[in-house]
Amino acid sequence: MACNNSGSMEKLDSSQRSELDDKEIENRLKRNANELVDFVRSNKIYNQDIAFMIDMKIPSSKNRFMVYNLKEKRILEKGLVAHGSGSETEGDTLKFSNIEHSNSTSLGMYKIGGSYIGQFGKAYKLHGLNKTNDKTYLRNVVLHSYNRVPDRETILPICNSRGCPMVSKNFFSILENYIDQSKSKLILYIYY
């Protein structure tokens, strides 16, 4: 619903809602990208050019994992990403937790650590850098692929993880190239 010039309420059509949603997504991206730029500038051990960003307000059926160029302030790649099953609620909103065994996604900035071969193949350890995600390493929350995460946007929500940012095998290959070719550690920023 929106107010027209006379002050009465009217329904927005889907294209108007989409434009508002896109503007809101863009504003959230800019705000969080600026915060990320400030963080990496004050912490030179992190990659100053590229970071990963996940906007958890975007539904899991849509591309919400972004490879972001911090200098040019633009998205280089986009893909689908699952959230933790413990983050599900009755409505459209998600909940987040840093508690062990919650199976929830945790918000905040993460340092992407070393890789290892695990249950889902190659994965990257994540180290939470904020109070909201400082138990990530202990919770075994990692960046990994899963064969049931699709490559393209869908109508229905995609599968859930146990709290890990989980992507398709093809998108993981793209991310893997950025991570492995980076001379300094990359940051992953999950925000809502």
Considering the chains and any ligands shown, give keywords for the structure.
192 residues; alpha+beta; L,D-transpeptidase catalytic domain-like; eight-stranded mixed sheet; two-stranded antiparallel ribbon; 2 helices
> Which structural category do the helix and sheet elements fall into?
alpha+beta
Second CATH tier, the architecture: Beta Barrel
Output mean pLDDT.
Answer: 90
Q: What would you report as the Rg, rounded to the nearest angstrom?
A: 17 Å
* Cα separation of the termini: 23 Å
| Amount of beta strand | 25-35%
Query: What fold name stands as the CATH topology?
Result: L,D-transpeptidase catalytic domain-like
Strand order in the sheet with the most strands: 5-4-3-10-6-7-8-9
Note the run of SSEs as H and E: EEHEEEEEEEHE
Question: How many helix segments?
Answer: 2
Write the layout of secondary structure elements.
Layout: E1 2-3, E2 9-10, H1 14-41, E3 50-55, E4 65-69, E5 74-79, E6 108-118, E7 121-128, E8 142-145, E9 166-167, H2 169-181, E10 187-191
Parallel strand pairs: 3-10, 8-9
Antiparallel strand pairs: 1-2, 3-4, 4-5, 6-7, 6-10, 7-8
Protein model, in words:
Helices cover 21% and strands 27% of the residues. The chain contains two helices and ten strands, in the order ββαβββββββαβ. The chain has an eight-stranded mixed beta sheet. β1 and β2 (9-10) form a beta hairpin. The longest helix is centred in the first third of the chain and has 28 residues, at 14-41. The radius of gyration is 17 Å and the shape is globular. The relative contact order is 0.19. Mean pLDDT is 90; it is low at 1-17.
